[in-house]
TrEMBL record:
Pfam families, alphabetized: Usp
Family annotation (PANTHER family): STRESS RESPONSE PROTEIN NHAX, UNIVERSAL STRESS PROTEIN UP12
Gene3D superfamilies: HUPs
Protein name (record): UspA domain-containing protein
Superkingdom, taxonomy of origin: Bacteria
Residue intervals of the UspA domain: 1-140, 150-275
Entry's family note: Belongs to the universal stress protein A family.
Amino acid sequence: MKRILVPVDFSGDSLRALRFGIYLANKLDCHLRMIHVQKSEKFEIPFHFEELKNEIIHTVQEYFDKLIKLHSADYCVKNGVFDFKIRTGSVYREIVNQAKYGDAFMILMGAYGASGFEEFFIGSNAVKVVTNATCPVITVQKEFDKGKLNTIVMPIDASTETRKKIPFVAEIAAQCKATIHILGVHETSDANVIGKIENYMRQAEDYFKEGNINYVKSIRKGENNTLSSLDYAREVDADLIAIMTEQAESSINMFFGSYAQQMINSSEIPILSVPND
Protein backbone atom coordinates (compact mmCIF):
# COMPACT_ATOMS: atom_id res chain seq x y z
CA MET A 1 0.00 0.00 0.00
CA LYS A 2 1.26 3.49 -0.84
CA ARG A 3 2.19 6.03 1.83
CA ILE A 4 1.73 9.79 2.10
CA LEU A 5 4.29 11.62 4.26
CA VAL A 6 3.17 14.76 6.10
CA PRO A 7 5.75 16.91 7.95
CA VAL A 8 4.24 18.27 11.18
CA ASP A 9 5.88 21.05 13.20
CA PHE A 10 2.61 21.80 15.09
CA SER A 11 2.10 25.09 13.26
CA GLY A 12 -1.28 25.97 11.76
CA ASP A 13 0.09 25.44 8.25
CA SER A 14 1.31 21.94 9.03
CA LEU A 15 -2.02 20.94 10.60
CA ARG A 16 -3.91 22.25 7.58
CA ALA A 17 -1.64 20.10 5.44
CA LEU A 18 -2.30 17.12 7.72
CA ARG A 19 -6.06 17.39 7.23
CA PHE A 20 -5.60 17.54 3.46
CA GLY A 21 -3.21 14.59 3.67
CA ILE A 22 -5.77 12.52 5.56
CA TYR A 23 -8.42 13.35 2.96
CA LEU A 24 -6.10 12.16 0.15
CA ALA A 25 -4.98 9.09 2.11
CA ASN A 26 -8.61 8.04 2.44
CA LYS A 27 -9.39 8.75 -1.22
CA LEU A 28 -6.27 6.98 -2.51
CA ASP A 29 -6.30 4.15 0.06
CA CYS A 30 -2.85 5.09 1.39
CA HIS A 31 -1.02 4.82 4.68
CA LEU A 32 -0.22 8.19 6.24
CA ARG A 33 2.95 8.94 8.16
CA MET A 34 3.66 12.17 10.02
CA ILE A 35 7.25 13.28 10.50
CA HIS A 36 8.55 15.84 12.96
CA VAL A 37 12.13 17.09 12.64
CA GLN A 38 13.86 18.49 15.71
CA LYS A 39 16.84 20.78 15.28
CA SER A 40 18.43 19.20 18.36
CA GLU A 41 17.71 16.49 20.91
CA LYS A 42 16.46 19.16 23.34
CA PHE A 43 12.64 19.18 23.49
CA GLU A 44 11.02 22.48 22.54
CA ILE A 45 7.33 22.89 23.29
CA PRO A 46 5.31 23.47 20.10
CA PHE A 47 3.41 26.74 20.23
CA HIS A 48 0.21 25.91 18.39
CA PHE A 49 -2.00 24.01 20.79
CA GLU A 50 -3.95 26.37 23.03
CA GLU A 51 -6.00 23.33 24.11
CA LEU A 52 -2.88 21.78 25.64
CA LYS A 53 -1.52 24.84 27.45
CA ASN A 54 -2.22 23.31 30.88
CA GLU A 55 -0.87 19.87 29.98
CA ILE A 56 2.51 18.71 31.22
CA ILE A 57 4.17 17.22 28.13
CA HIS A 58 7.81 16.21 27.98
CA THR A 59 8.38 14.77 24.51
CA VAL A 60 7.36 15.25 20.89
CA GLN A 61 5.94 11.73 20.98
CA GLU A 62 3.57 12.79 23.75
CA TYR A 63 2.48 15.75 21.60
CA PHE A 64 1.68 13.42 18.72
CA ASP A 65 -0.30 11.16 21.03
CA LYS A 66 -2.25 14.14 22.39
CA LEU A 67 -2.79 15.50 18.87
CA ILE A 68 -4.33 12.27 17.63
CA LYS A 69 -6.45 11.85 20.78
CA LEU A 70 -7.63 15.46 20.82
CA HIS A 71 -8.67 15.49 17.17
CA SER A 72 -9.45 11.83 16.60
CA ALA A 73 -12.59 12.65 14.59
CA ASP A 74 -10.57 14.81 12.16
CA TYR A 75 -7.48 12.62 12.08
CA CYS A 76 -8.79 9.26 10.96
CA VAL A 77 -7.08 7.20 8.26
CA LYS A 78 -9.72 4.61 7.37
CA ASN A 79 -7.92 1.94 5.40
CA GLY A 80 -4.24 2.42 6.17
CA VAL A 81 -1.75 2.77 9.00
CA PHE A 82 -1.54 6.23 10.63
CA ASP A 83 1.81 6.65 12.39
CA PHE A 84 4.69 9.07 12.91
CA LYS A 85 8.47 9.36 12.91
CA ILE A 86 10.67 11.77 14.85
CA ARG A 87 14.00 12.83 13.34
CA THR A 88 16.78 15.21 14.39
CA GLY A 89 18.74 17.39 11.98
CA SER A 90 18.15 19.55 8.91
CA VAL A 91 14.41 19.85 8.37
CA TYR A 92 14.28 19.50 4.61
CA ARG A 93 17.02 16.83 4.43
CA GLU A 94 15.31 14.62 7.00
CA ILE A 95 11.95 14.98 5.24
CA VAL A 96 13.46 14.16 1.85
CA ASN A 97 15.40 11.19 3.25
CA GLN A 98 12.36 9.81 5.08
CA ALA A 99 10.33 10.06 1.87
CA LYS A 100 13.06 8.33 -0.13
CA TYR A 101 13.90 5.51 2.25
CA GLY A 102 10.31 5.12 3.44
CA ASP A 103 9.17 4.80 -0.18
CA ALA A 104 6.66 7.64 0.06
CA PHE A 105 4.15 8.04 -2.75
CA MET A 106 3.84 11.74 -2.01
CA ILE A 107 4.86 14.44 0.49
CA LEU A 108 2.16 16.87 1.61
CA MET A 109 3.29 19.85 3.66
CA GLY A 110 2.54 23.41 4.74
CA ALA A 111 4.13 26.08 2.58
CA TYR A 112 5.66 27.98 5.49
CA GLY A 113 5.52 26.24 8.83
CA ALA A 114 6.67 27.43 12.22
CA SER A 115 9.11 30.12 11.08
CA GLY A 116 6.36 31.69 9.03
CA PHE A 117 6.60 34.90 7.06
CA GLU A 118 10.38 35.27 7.07
CA GLU A 119 10.66 32.22 4.84
CA PHE A 120 9.06 34.20 2.00
CA PHE A 121 12.36 36.04 1.75
CA ILE A 122 14.98 33.46 2.71
CA GLY A 123 13.62 30.38 0.93
CA SER A 124 11.34 28.00 2.76
CA ASN A 125 11.90 24.41 3.75
CA ALA A 126 8.93 23.66 1.50
CA VAL A 127 10.79 24.93 -1.57
CA LYS A 128 13.88 22.96 -0.57
CA VAL A 129 11.81 19.80 -0.15
CA VAL A 130 10.14 20.35 -3.54
CA THR A 131 13.52 20.89 -5.19
CA ASN A 132 15.18 17.83 -3.65
CA ALA A 133 12.39 15.26 -3.30
CA THR A 134 12.24 12.30 -5.67
CA CYS A 135 8.46 11.98 -5.25
CA PRO A 136 5.68 14.52 -5.91
CA VAL A 137 5.09 17.20 -3.27
CA ILE A 138 1.89 19.09 -2.47
CA THR A 139 2.35 22.40 -0.62
CA VAL A 140 -0.61 23.89 1.25
CA GLN A 141 -1.17 27.41 2.55
CA LYS A 142 -4.77 27.59 3.68
CA GLU A 143 -7.44 25.36 5.19
CA PHE A 144 -8.79 22.57 3.01
CA ASP A 145 -12.35 23.48 3.89
CA LYS A 146 -14.39 22.15 0.96
CA GLY A 147 -14.11 18.55 2.03
CA LYS A 148 -13.63 17.53 -1.59
CA LEU A 149 -11.03 17.92 -4.31
CA ASN A 150 -13.16 18.89 -7.30
CA THR A 151 -10.99 20.90 -9.69
CA ILE A 152 -7.36 20.45 -10.73
CA VAL A 153 -5.62 22.93 -13.04
CA MET A 154 -2.80 21.39 -15.07
CA PRO A 155 -0.77 24.01 -16.98
CA ILE A 156 0.86 22.80 -20.20
CA ASP A 157 3.71 24.74 -21.84
CA ALA A 158 5.98 23.96 -24.80
CA SER A 159 8.66 22.03 -22.88
CA THR A 160 8.80 18.27 -23.38
CA GLU A 161 8.87 17.78 -19.57
CA THR A 162 5.45 19.35 -19.11
CA ARG A 163 3.71 16.06 -20.04
CA LYS A 164 5.39 13.97 -17.35
CA LYS A 165 2.89 15.07 -14.72
CA ILE A 166 -0.11 13.75 -16.67
CA PRO A 167 -0.23 10.16 -15.23
CA PHE A 168 0.14 11.31 -11.62
CA VAL A 169 -2.51 14.02 -12.01
CA ALA A 170 -4.80 11.50 -13.69
CA GLU A 171 -4.46 9.05 -10.78
CA ILE A 172 -5.46 11.68 -8.21
CA ALA A 173 -8.32 12.98 -10.35
CA ALA A 174 -9.71 9.50 -10.94
CA GLN A 175 -9.78 8.61 -7.22
CA CYS A 176 -11.19 11.98 -6.16
CA LYS A 177 -13.60 12.20 -9.12
CA ALA A 178 -12.13 15.61 -9.93
CA THR A 179 -12.25 17.52 -13.22
CA ILE A 180 -8.89 18.41 -14.76
CA HIS A 181 -8.49 21.73 -16.54
CA ILE A 182 -5.87 21.27 -19.27
CA LEU A 183 -4.51 24.81 -19.48
CA GLY A 184 -2.17 25.72 -22.34
CA VAL A 185 -0.04 28.72 -21.39
CA HIS A 186 2.36 30.71 -23.54
CA GLU A 187 4.11 34.08 -23.60
CA THR A 188 4.66 34.30 -27.35
CA SER A 189 2.76 34.57 -30.63
CA ASP A 190 5.12 32.09 -32.33
CA ALA A 191 2.91 29.64 -34.25
CA ASN A 192 5.39 26.78 -33.77
CA VAL A 193 5.34 27.18 -29.99
CA ILE A 194 1.56 27.42 -29.86
CA GLY A 195 1.24 24.39 -32.16
CA LYS A 196 3.49 22.34 -29.88
CA ILE A 197 1.42 23.28 -26.82
CA GLU A 198 -1.81 22.38 -28.61
CA ASN A 199 -0.33 19.00 -29.57
CA TYR A 200 0.67 18.30 -25.95
CA MET A 201 -2.84 19.30 -24.86
CA ARG A 202 -4.33 16.77 -27.28
CA GLN A 203 -2.05 14.07 -25.86
CA ALA A 204 -3.29 14.89 -22.35
CA GLU A 205 -6.88 14.84 -23.62
CA ASP A 206 -6.40 11.38 -25.15
CA TYR A 207 -4.91 10.08 -21.88
CA PHE A 208 -7.82 11.37 -19.83
CA LYS A 209 -10.39 10.03 -22.29
CA GLU A 210 -8.87 6.58 -21.98
CA GLY A 211 -9.11 6.80 -18.20
CA ASN A 212 -12.69 8.15 -18.24
CA ILE A 213 -11.53 11.30 -16.43
CA ASN A 214 -13.51 14.51 -16.73
CA TYR A 215 -11.59 17.38 -18.28
CA VAL A 216 -11.92 20.76 -19.97
CA LYS A 217 -9.43 22.59 -22.17
CA SER A 218 -8.33 26.21 -22.39
CA ILE A 219 -5.32 28.12 -23.70
CA ARG A 220 -4.03 31.51 -22.64
CA LYS A 221 -1.34 33.97 -23.66
CA GLY A 222 0.13 36.27 -21.03
CA GLU A 223 3.28 38.09 -20.00
CA ASN A 224 4.09 35.49 -17.36
CA ASN A 225 3.01 31.84 -17.49
CA THR A 226 3.02 31.54 -13.71
CA LEU A 227 0.65 34.48 -13.25
CA SER A 228 -1.54 33.28 -16.12
CA SER A 229 -1.88 29.90 -14.42
CA LEU A 230 -2.70 31.43 -11.04
CA ASP A 231 -5.27 33.82 -12.53
CA TYR A 232 -7.01 30.98 -14.35
CA ALA A 233 -6.97 28.73 -11.28
CA ARG A 234 -8.62 31.45 -9.22
CA GLU A 235 -11.27 32.01 -11.89
CA VAL A 236 -12.32 28.35 -11.87
CA ASP A 237 -12.02 28.05 -8.06
CA ALA A 238 -9.36 25.33 -8.37
CA ASP A 239 -8.47 23.06 -5.47
CA LEU A 240 -5.04 22.09 -6.82
CA ILE A 241 -2.52 23.32 -9.43
CA ALA A 242 -0.19 20.69 -10.89
CA ILE A 243 3.26 21.79 -12.10
CA MET A 244 6.63 20.25 -12.88
CA THR A 245 9.41 20.83 -10.35
CA GLU A 246 11.93 21.57 -13.08
CA GLN A 247 11.66 22.32 -16.75
CA ALA A 248 14.17 23.18 -19.45
CA GLU A 249 15.58 26.70 -19.14
CA SER A 250 14.38 28.71 -22.11
CA SER A 251 12.38 31.80 -22.98
CA ILE A 252 9.18 29.74 -22.75
CA ASN A 253 9.89 27.87 -19.54
CA MET A 254 7.53 27.85 -16.59
CA PHE A 255 8.27 27.16 -12.93
CA PHE A 256 12.05 26.97 -13.32
CA GLY A 257 14.12 27.96 -10.29
CA SER A 258 12.60 31.08 -8.77
CA TYR A 259 9.30 30.45 -10.60
CA ALA A 260 8.67 27.32 -8.51
CA GLN A 261 9.32 29.35 -5.38
CA GLN A 262 7.07 32.10 -6.67
CA MET A 263 4.24 29.62 -7.18
CA ILE A 264 4.57 28.12 -3.71
CA ASN A 265 4.85 31.50 -2.01
CA SER A 266 2.19 33.29 -4.07
CA SER A 267 -0.56 30.71 -4.45
CA GLU A 268 -3.24 30.28 -1.83
CA ILE A 269 -4.27 27.21 -3.83
CA PRO A 270 -2.33 24.00 -3.05
CA ILE A 271 0.50 23.29 -5.50
CA LEU A 272 1.36 19.78 -6.68
CA SER A 273 4.99 19.69 -7.85
CA VAL A 274 5.96 16.59 -9.84
CA PRO A 275 9.71 15.89 -10.17
CA ASN A 276 11.25 15.64 -13.61
CA ASP A 277 12.61 12.10 -13.31
